[in-house]
Amino acid sequence: MKTFFQKLLNTLHINGREFPVFLLSLLLAFSIWLIHNLSLRYNDFITVSIVAKCNIEGHSSLSSNRCDVVVRGRTTGFNIMKFKTAGKGSVEVPFARMHQKEPEVFYVTPAELQEYTPMIFGEDVNLEYYLTDTLFFRFPFENSRKVPVRLVHDFGLEPQYAIVGGVEVEPDSVTIYGEPYRLEKIEYAYTEPVKISHLNADVHGVAKLDRIRDIRFAEEAVKYSVDVARYVEITDVVNISVRNVPAGRTMTVYPSTAKVSYRCIFPYRENLVQDIDFYVDYNDFISSRSGKVIVQSGSLPQGIISYFVEPQVVDCVIGDR
After folding, report:
1. What is the largest CA-CA distance in the chain?
2. What is the per-residue pLDDT across 47-67, written as a single tens digit (0 to 9) for each?
3. Of 196, 207, 302, 305, which is most buried by a Cβ count within 10 Å?
């Protein structure tokens, strides 16, 4: 093989130093030839696989199947290559042009299909004739239901800052459309992840809904808002009271006090935590198998973001008066 190339170079009067230039010239000539030939127009059979779009009440707006449309036409070599490698498309057909065969199956005749030739093949194809017969598309029955929206987020806060009142989403629910058996499996509509670091102020934004295959959403995105505030930590020791103890009974709590750590919005107001009541409920004790009850609080005044009780669970003893 090496001897053959050497003879070829000698015949062409090309020495070793000129060989790279020769290869580059050969590649350039081939490129010019290829571009020239692909820009010419040819007669050929062209195939495009299409889905149909149609507004049919109670049905999906997009067909669940594809149909191959085959035509004989004249176009450039570039277009022929494009159709052979990525021959997919869609066509929007008015409901008046659709004919119903079965409850979910609709069809378009070849005569009606010719109206959509530019939409399917583009303007640069001169159509000679269709080889495709009637196209059948399945538009599945479609139900709808409303599901809550869940914002998928990762908010990183600066030290001594906290989210106040949780994360708000608008709208907080969205209508989804799809086949009944698909809808019944969906409990929530989730957003695409939102990640923000070093938060020390309120933040507002828009989050796109995370798409679910074969499910259509009434909304493309939702708005979210997060209130962020600086806080200070206040610690207090409180007595644990009891509630809903029936007449003739007593309820004793062990321990009878608890340590509470509050997160309060800065600047801190004096006596903000003074009148908060912490208690255990007799009914919770009756329904508890272990005899342990969770410590609860009464209503919290504005200005308190959260609190932590230690211990969170206490022992209770019931007695007679």
Report:
1. 122
2. 788 888 888 878 888 888 888
3. 207
